[in-house]
Design a protein that fits this description.
about 250 residues; Rossmann fold; globular; 7 strands; alpha/beta; 8 helices; 7-stranded parallel beta sheet
């Protein structure tokens, strides 16, 4: 995509799904990409796909809930490429349980794997970004409305949108833009594993005005656009990519 070349970006949770699609799309636009995931082999697969397509990428293992791990991953990107122009914070974790049935440990794990992890990523990405840089946080439709039986996940995703908006205001004078993308149900491996049989997917499609779920590539294209110069006057938004579910 025009506007991301020749630049350097990183994508968390890039071993599969939306993260992988985003890394591939950035690379196709000419950007060098650091592929970050807690699963080293999955990240390596994405890196290999980029290289087979003629792009430039490196792999780094990261646990976004661990501060030292995040710091090292950002530093590795800057050391390898000499700069950082944009970051897509996609990694996260889900949970589906009624609030009264959720343990404190589970609640804190989900919040740390989403909200705290995004905070840690931004903490080290923001100082590394050049003027004109951009961050895109992959939140969720659950950051804008309720999802039944997902109190920790929804709370964390609402928090990510809050972090996004505050950072957008605080770092605008530095020429850095910060936005969020809020996907609706998307046909990722994680979603399909959760959905199980085809009935759940069919029900989700039935309540979506466009009549189908998003593909990872459709969400990725929105994230890459927000990274690009085409979105140079956009900051602090939470962009729904949900097939009209919030219309």
């Amino acid at each position: 995509m025009s506007g991301v070349s020749p630049k350097v970006g990183l994508v968390t949770g890039a071993g599969s799904g939306i993260g992988r699609a985003t890394a591939l799309e950035l690379a196709r636009g000419g950007a060098a990409v650091t592929v970050l995931d807690i699963d080293e082999s999955a990240a390596a697969e994405t890196t290999e796909l980029i290289r087979k397509d003629g792009g430039e990428a490196l792999t780094a293992t990261v646990d976004i809930a661990d501060e030292r791990s995040v710091q090292a991953a950002v530093e590795r990107t800057v050391t390898a490429y000499g700069r950082l122009d944009f970051a897509v914070n996609n990694a996260g974790t889900a949970s589906h349980r009624r609030l009264d049935q959720m343990t404190l440990d589970e609640f804190e794990r989900v919040v740390r794997g989403n909200l705290t992890g995004t905070f840690l990523c931004m903490k080290y990405e923001l100082p590394a970004l050049d003027r004109g840089g951009a961050i895109v946080n992959i939140a969720s439709g659950g950051g804008l409305h309720a999802i039944p039986h997902a109190p920790a996940y929804v709370a964390a995703k609402h928090g990510i949108i809050g972090l996004t908006k505050v950072a957008a205001v605080d770092y605008a004078p530095d020429g850095i833009r910060v936005n969020a993308v809020c996907p609706g149900p998307t046909r990722t491996p994680g979603f399909e594993k959760w959905a199980g049989d085809g009935d759940m997917i069919a029900r989700q499609e039935a309540i979506t005005p466009l009549g189908r779920l998003a593909t990872p590539e459709e969400v990725a294209e929105a994230a890459v656009w927000l990274c690009s110069g085409a979105a140079s006057y956009i900051t602090g938004i939470a962009l729904s990519v949900d097939g009209g579910r919030r219309a």
